[in-house]
Backbone:
């Protein structure tokens, strides 16, 4: 018997019939396909924009300096016998820091005191002789030449007494200068000369013993640019800047390791001219330092008021996005969808940003979950309240 060949169509026909049967059975009632699961809109945190009264600030770098810095030097020469303080110790005005051997100066003082006593006795004797000479001259008992000599002797004795008293005062000062005292309240540096050394008190060749710097208050020196200076002067002229009871403009300062500006102070003085080379002027502000945290030479950030207190729209930094060179925020529409809103930002205030253009009061701004949404996308809003209400405004 001759074999009949099997074609491809014959092989594929049973598989096609089986697939058709499955499709027909799937379309029957009671055999519906499972429905697709639709994800709910993502949750985002929104806040209502509300204007607040704020003051804009201009920020500058600064260096801290003590109001008083004194180099402690001896005023007499001699042998150093004592150092009466520890390095870095807080000292008061009048505290003895060093002692120079007082014995030689004490001997000079005693000799000068004896000379004063001798001169006073001489003045008393010559004064009596001069008075007696006047009586004797009236009775013609002595000549006028002898009377004049006695009067001149009295005058010479008085002059000798004044010279002796001056020498005694000099000796007293030299003896007092053997005890080198702190001229101010402040913090002393380390002793630069140790016991056993001779120190010089000769003008021009005095020995540096240590330095003392005042601690409280503390100054901060800032270079302020010319535009800021002109703006500041105009606001000050119009009386739009906040001041303390003494009429000083209030400023704030923070150290390099501090967040924000926790130290409150005031502008103490402004230099009398603008530096032509840099176009800036030196501004000195003053701060209390009762806890001793501020040290001379530290780097600091100082912010100066740059506007009067005025209403402004402020939002948290977390609500601001960047699209190339454009800043934007995402807002919530009435249909709970996301809208793209370009904005123009202003200064930073208390960790938030002023929005100069692009938002208005009542807008709903997304402040959390920005990375999970895109414009036009439906969302589930979770309202937090007023935008940026967690940060305080002065």
Residues:
């Amino acid at each position: 018997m001759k074999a009949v060949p099997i074609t491809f169509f014959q092989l594929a026909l049973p598989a096609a019939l089986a697939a058709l049967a499955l499709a027909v059975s799937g379309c029957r009632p009671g055999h519906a396909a499972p429905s697709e699961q639709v994800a709910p809109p993502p949750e985002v945190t929104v806040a209502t924009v509300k204007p607040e009264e704020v003051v804009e600030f201009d920020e500058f770098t600064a260096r801290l300096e003590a109001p008083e810095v004194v180099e402690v030097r001896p005023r007499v020469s001699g042998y150093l016998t004592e150092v009466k303080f520890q390095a870095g110790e807080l000292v008061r005005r009048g505290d003895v820091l060093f002692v120079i051997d007082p014995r030689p100066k004490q001997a000079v003082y005693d000799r000068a005191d004896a000379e004063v006593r001798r001169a006073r006795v001489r003045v008393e004797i010559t004064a009596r002789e001069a008075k007696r000479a006047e009586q004797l001259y009236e009775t013609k008992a002595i000549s006028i030449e002898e009377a004049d000599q006695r009067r001149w002797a009295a005058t010479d004795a008085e002059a000798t007494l004044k010279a002796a008293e001056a020498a005694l005062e000099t000796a007293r000062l030299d003896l007092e200068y053997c005890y080198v005292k702190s001229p101010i309240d402040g913090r002393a540096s380390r002793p630069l000369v140790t016991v056993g050394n001779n120190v010089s008190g000769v003008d021009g060749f005095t020995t540096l013993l240590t330095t003392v710097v005042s601690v409280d208050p503390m100054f901060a020196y800032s270079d302020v640019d010319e535009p800021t200076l002109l703006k500041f002067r105009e606001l000050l002229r119009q009386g739009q800047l906040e001041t303390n009871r003494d009429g000083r403009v209030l400023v704030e300062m923070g150290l390099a390791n501090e967040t924000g500006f926790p130290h409150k102070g005031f502008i103490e003085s402004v230099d009398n001219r603008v530096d032509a080379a840099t176009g800036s002027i030196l501004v000195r502000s003053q701060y209390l330092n009762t806890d001793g945290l501020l040290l001379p030479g530290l780097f600091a950030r100082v912010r100066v008021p740059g506007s009067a207190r005025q209403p402004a729209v402020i939002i948290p930094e977390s609500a601001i996005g960047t699209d190339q060179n454009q800043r934007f925020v995402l807002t919530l529409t009435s249909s709970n969808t996301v809208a793209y809103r370009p904005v123009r930002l202003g200064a930073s205030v208390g960790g938030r940003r002023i929005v100069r253009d692009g938002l208005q009061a009542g807008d709903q701004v997304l402040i959390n979950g920005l990375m999970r949404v895109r414009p036009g996308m439906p969302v589930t809003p979770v309202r937090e309240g007023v935008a940026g209400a967690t940060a305080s405004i002065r």
